[in-house]
Write a structure and sequence with these properties.
The complex is a heterodimer of chains A (about 190) and B (about 170).
Chain A (H helix, E strand, L loop, with lengths): L1 H16 L7 H6 L11 E11 L6 E15 H4 L6 E10 L7 E8 L15 E5 L4 E10 L11 E6 L2 E7 L21
Antiparallel strand pairs in A: 1-2, 2-7, 2-8, 3-6, 3-8, 4-5, 4-7
Chain B lengths: L2 E10 L5 H8 L6 E10 L7 E12 L8 E11 L2 E5 L4 E17 L8 E14 L4 E9 L1 E2 L9 E2 L2 E11 L1
Antiparallel strand pairs in B: 1-2, 1-11, 2-3, 3-4, 4-6, 5-6, 6-7, 7-8, 8-11, 9-10
Classes of the chains: A mainly beta (about 190), B mainly beta (about 170).
């Protein structure tokens, strides 16, 4: 009993101190300058714009009413190089559309050869409401298992009237970076 | 006792607004550290009036490689300490407060997030021993500000807090 209490106390303390989850991976993935000889990690298409999110200086993406998309280079996420991976988006709908606000996820592995690319799942979508929620857009699929993935492989999020403030790849710990000391750079359009 | 001065240090959880919950959803937790200084003149045996000022601060960097989040707020205002029970040796006070707050929520990078200004209210229940110059309080501060970022939600720079401190009186 005492041992259980001690474990519960340590868990509470760990949780209060921040735990081991990564935060604001959108900032980490899309807010960093591109690595030389690689394409930019993120690209905005159509009625999508970069803005600020849960702080006045954090990166967030808004899909406007005409519909837009965020294209993320798969390699920039890191997690798809693991044995398995998943991907979630912290998003909300604003304003609500009569037909619903759907966030659609596509994976484009068209340029990959069969050996190195992970399995390409069918497209998925999540219905969003006005409250922010973690929408599961890739639910535990096989990754490349350390085989290189071409830079042209992309994960694409599409939608209209949708606010995105964060992304995450549960269970994957990205390599230690500079802790966000670099200022966010504009996402190329 | 005609007047007192009190300095307290304390800890508390995050504020209760939607943006505070959103930050937690995104991985940012951490305890908020509070410092308050107040003084009052007791114009009646049970009722006084005075000044109250302080700050709170929270810093969180989940996972070690995320952008560090810093939240800080500074406030100054008026208070109305009411002696509920006791005398100089052991006294319970309830203290309603109103104040003005400047708060900032930002990531630890080269970009500065703007300060947000808001009117706030709150209060504290305090147990003091002016004889031994010691005291302890449970406080609450409602400090609603707008969304700090374009896509964020309303943020609260206050919350619940528990403090320990020292007193002087005359």
């Amino acid at each position: 009993m005492a041992e259980r209490s001690r474990i519960a106390f340590v868990a509470l303390l760990w949780s209060a101190c921040g735990g081991d989850e990564q935060a604001l991976r959108l900032e980490q993935v899309c807010g960093q300058p591109p690595v030389p000889q690689q394409s930019a990690p993120c690209r905005l298409i159509g009625d999508a714009q970069e803005t600020t999110g849960i702080t006045g200086d954090s990166l967030a993406i808004r899909f406007g009413s005409a519909g837009g998309a965020l294209e993320i280079r798969i390699n920039a996420l890191g997690a798809p190089l693991e044995q398995t991976w998943s991907f979630e988006v912290l998003a909300a709908a604003r304003p609500l559309r009569p037909e619903g606000n759907l966030l659609v996820r596509k994976l484009d592995f068209s340029s990959c050869d069969a050996v190195s690319c992970p399995e390409q799942p069918v497209d998925s979508q999540a219905a969003l409401d006005e409250d922010f929620q973690w929408a599961v857009m890739v639910e535990t699929i096989p990754g490349s298992n350390s085989n290189p993935i071409p830079d042209s492989a992309k994960l694409i999020l599409e939608g209209a009237d949708i606010d995105i403030v964060d992304i995450r790849t549960p269970g994957f710990e990205p390599p230690d970076t500079d802790g966000g000391d670099n200022p966010p750079t504009p996402v190329p359009r | 006792m005609r007047w007192f001065v009190r300095m307290e240090l304390g800890l508390g959880p995050r504020g209760f607004a939607e943006n505070n919950a959103l930050l937690e959803d995104s991985g940012y937790r951490g305890v908020k550290f509070w410092v308050t200084l107040d003084a009052a003149y007791m114009f009646h045996r049970h009722v006084g009036a005075g000044l109250w000022l302080g700050m709170n601060r929270r810093s969180s960097q989940p996972g070690g490689s995320s952008a560090r989040l810093n939240e800080a707020a500074y406030f100054i205002g008026a208070q109305l300490p009411i002696l509920l029970w006791g005398r100089r040796a052991y006294a319970f006070h309830a203290t309603p407060r109103v104040a003005f707050l400047g708060g900032q929520l930002e990531l630890d990078d080269d970009e500065n997030a703007p300060f947000q200004m808001t009117a706030i209210f709150g209060g504290a229940l305090s147990f003091q021993s002016f004889t031994y110059h010691l005291g302890s309080s449970i406080g609450f501060l409602h400090a609603p500000a707008g969304a700090p970022g374009e896509l964020g939600r309303g943020h609260d720079y206050g919350g619940l807090y528990f403090t320990l401190g020292g007193t002087l009186d005359g």
